[in-house]
Every structure is written in structure tokens, then in C-alpha cells.
Amino acid sequence: MSHVLSDQDRTAEAERELRAALAAGGLEADAEALLRTALASLLGSEGRYPEAVEEIGRALVADASFAPAAQVRRVNAALLADLGRHREAAEQYVALVVAGRRERSSFALLAESNRLVQLTCLGEHEAVEHGAARLEDESTRAPEPDATWARVSANNSLALSLALRGRHADAGELLHRAQAANLADDAFALILHVNPVRALLGQGRTRRLDGTLRTGPPRHRRRPRRPHGTGRTGAVRPAGRTGAVRPAGRNGAVPAGRPAPFDASPPPPGGPPPPPANPLRRPSRRPCGAPSGGGPARGSR
Fold it and tell me: What spans are recorded as compositionally biased (Gly residues) (predicted)?
């Protein structure tokens, strides 16, 4: 019920439902982990990061089985990314990839695609290129819809990396390919529609913008401003209730007063929970995609 209420933007009611379920007590570890993770996701979507961090910390110490623990780790990584802590988020996704492969879960592909987003935000563009090529190859052996989501997300991440290096035409080509392959009309579809617009701006092709904008997805769910100017980047996440994949996204701190370099994004799970370190240490100030020292110029956003 809380998921339905949240999807309808009835977040206050959803929060009450979740807190009431947690207050009832007598919960098994898996149930507690999933409830706290859902609450952390809801709080994060409202921009209430201190509370979200507190809830995910409690979920991390629950002795949950693989699937709930993976969901906890996924949300923890997404919160770290929202706070600009891309290195730590990338490390979380590495653990999720390892755990997913150990369980022979295709979720490893989704976690890897989200790791690429974090590497892009860290300016590790060569690693992103290699990772996207490897992910494309691995996705050919995965079931649907996981294989398609992984490829689309990898293309989006690689396009972000290319745009940040000024290769807007190559980025636009990848994004149009991702648009054509995307399976749903949702927030991720909007990201895939907006990013080609940014690629056109980067190429100075402003005459094509009007038609491109007019043909965009009609829906756009309101999201709060991310801390420190963080934006969305377009990762994919599994839907917690059914195990089906659904796209979402986040990430990418942007320096104040500057246009943000593309929307990239992200959320997946897996693996033993890390120690519940306080994720509210000072967040990273490095803008998404900024190279670690000098490096290529950013692309327009």
C-alpha cells in the first residue's frame, strides 16, 4: 500500500503506513529491512536526507537474506550518490555486482550499469568506456527485461561521459539508440529525452530543439532539489515488490551557478551489508563528470 500511495505522491500517507508497520514490532529481519529501505527511499525522494540516512543505517544492520539485503545496499548506494559521495557509491555497487554474480542473479548487470554512472561522475572516462563495452557483451546472455535496461543505462552513462569530453555528436547518437530501446514511458524516459537536447545544445544545433522538446514524454514526476546541486543521471533499479526492473535515477553534483553537464543517473542491490558508517559526513563537492585534476573540458548541459 505504501508503494501505491508514494506513486500517487501521497507521501505523507505512505510514510505513516511504513512507520506504523515498523512500530508494530515482532518483524522478521527481512521484513524490517524492506520496510526501513522503503521508508529511506521515500524520505530521500522528499529531500529529507538526514532521516533517510538514519533509516538506511538501521536497515543495514538487519540480518536480512540476499534479496532484501541487496535492496538495502542499492538504496544505500543511491543515497551516497545523491550526497555527492560517488567513490563510496561506486564501491557499494562493486559489492552488489560481486554478490549478484555469486547468486547468479542478473541484478549484477544493473548494479554494474549504476557503477558506471558513479565512475562518470568521478571523471574516470576510460573505465566507463571499457565497462560499457563489457556490459553490452554480458547483457546478450541475460534475460529480458534486465538485458535491455542494462544496455540502455550503459549507453546513457557512456553518453554522459562522451558529452563531458565535448563529444556531443557521439553522445547524441548513443542517446537516440537508448531512446529507441527503452521499454517504458517513465522518469527514465524523460531523462533519455532531455539528454539528446543537451547534446544538440553542445553542438550549437539550436534550430532542432523546438521539435525535439515538443515530442518528449508527457509525464514528469516532481522531485526535490538534490543537496549541493546534485542532479539526476538515469540509472536503473529493480522494483522492490515484484523483482521486475524499473528505471530511476540520481547523481551528479553540479557546481553552483553553472549549467549542469547532462543528466546521468541511478539505482541496484546485493551482498553483505557494509558497516553503517554515517553517510552524512561532508559530501563530495566534485561535480559529476569532473576529471580528477585538469583533464578534458566539460560538455554543455
Answer: 291-301
